[in-house]
Amino acid sequence: MSNFITNANWRYATKKFDTTKKVSKEDLETLKEAIRLSASSYGLQPYKVFIIENTELRTQLQPAAWGQSQIVDASQLIVFANITNFGEAEIDAYFQNLIETRKIPMEAVQGYADFMKSKITTLPEGVRNTWTAKQTYIALSNLLNAAAGLHIDVTPMEGFEPEKFNEILGFDKLGLNASVIATIGYRHEEDTTQHYVKVRKSNEELFINL
Prior knowledge:
The chain is an alpha+beta fold. It has helices at 2-10, 25-36, 55-61, 70-73, 88-102, 110-120, 125-149, 162-169, 171-174, 203-206, and strands at 47-52, 76-83, 153-157, 176-185. It has a four-stranded antiparallel β-sheet, with helices on both faces. It is globular and about 60 Å long. The model has no long low-confidence stretch (mean pLDDT 97).
């Protein structure tokens, strides 16, 4: 746990990436696995994760991310896209994966499947979209923590225009929505932000024991 806290203190939202340094294929696979293993509501993982390395595509996206340099300078841009209008088809796909993975008959989990559908599909579409978008942030947190353990920098970003990202990446046609993005790579030695003392609330202000 001491290493976790040390790494949490080491990480920060990198403002300037070193364009000469790239995340290795091996480390990228580790980060992908950390995202894949993230907790999610019902275990449904109601999102897709896009890893964008293409320079031309990132240049197109940069204006829709307030012109921030990290979009093009980082090793990779990661876009977490929540599934919109999540419903029965996605739940059925989850249970098909479940019975194949655990090698059990559908009859053994049919009651749970019906329960899940009754709780999710009856929600208004807007509520479901908000719910799936929230799940992407759990996956993002796994990325942050796993990357810190590898001393790979991550900048989580809400400073972008989802509608324009959706248009450029064709998400509208895929039933997806750009929920949150992150850039990964290595901090530039000239990024003065890395030397700032981390500002957080004190335990007394943040935590309440009941």
